Amino acid sequence: MIKIKIFGSTPPCARCKELERRAMNVAGKYPDQIEVTKFDAFSVEGDKYGIMLTPAMVINDKVISAGKLISEEEIEKAIRKEREV
Question: Does some domain include residue 80?
Answer without folding.
Answer: no
